[in-house]
Amino acid sequence: MLTLWGINALLLALLAPRWWQGVVAGALIAGVAWVLGAARTEVVIPPVANVSSSPISSHAGNPSDLPVLVQAIVPAWRNNVQLARTQTQEAIDKLTQRFVGIHQRLGGAVSLAEGGKNGDVLQVIQNAAQQLGGIADALEQVLTTRDALLRKIETLSQHNEDIRQLGLQVEQIAGRTGVTDLFSDQASWTELAARSAETGRQIVNKTKVVQQQIQATHLSANQLDADAGRMVDDSRMVIDSVIADFRQSADKLSGTVGQLEEENREVDQEVCDILVNLQFQDRISQILDHVQLDMVKLTGLVQSAGPLPPSAAWLADLEKTYTTQEQRQVHAGQQADKSLQSQVDFF
Question: Does residue 7 sit in the same domain as residue 145?
């Protein structure tokens, strides 16, 4: 009831034909409330007409919540995106090294066959080298897709920095509000609320742009996944064919059979290692999907003008969505473990 009296007093002060009449009426009502032993009521700022239509205007009364939350979660987004970029680059580099190793082993087998007396073995090795050239071309296409994906991730990182700067602007506006009494200048409140709302709208718009960029990056990652899958199948067929030819030709050799079989085993192990390394696109897709869903969550919360949770609770919920140990490590501010996996994992 006392809160209602305080609101009525404020409305009288604002709506009276002459401001001093409203002040007198408000003072009388406040005096009655004081006599009755009411506690001091909280100052209520009248809504601004041209701001209330915006979803961000509900945060104008407390503009510091949004920048605090944004500055807390943007580093987590940035770390996850950087993790995706690093894993992409490292995985492709390892794949390249593996194929170079296969090529060198086949080259050594060529030299070994040239020292023998059976020309058929040399022909088999040369055919294998030509088939490996086709694999190298496919790898070049994957590298091109990788470069395009990295460029999108670079753009995404810049958008995240823009969001952080906008959050700082909102925080600066919040710092200027201070503690205002019942009769503060409404024009100042209107200006601050309008600036806060405009910056909030910019954050929402920038978040939408980042979300679109995430979707484009996600599509590129899926395309890279498909290309890598085809390359794995083609590589397996080529390597199996090469191994089969090696084994057939090895029976015709005398002194070099054991060495060629060892090369076959090494090539097969290289292919297994390639299959392990090609899991990177699955991990990247999951990391980017987690960041995208968290951005959608923030955008929906801001647009619905709902209460903002504490940044610690938000980050804890984000951490629960992680599926890789590297994500948990970078979330905790640690260096991601770069140790190689020894077997194929299915997520």
Answer: no
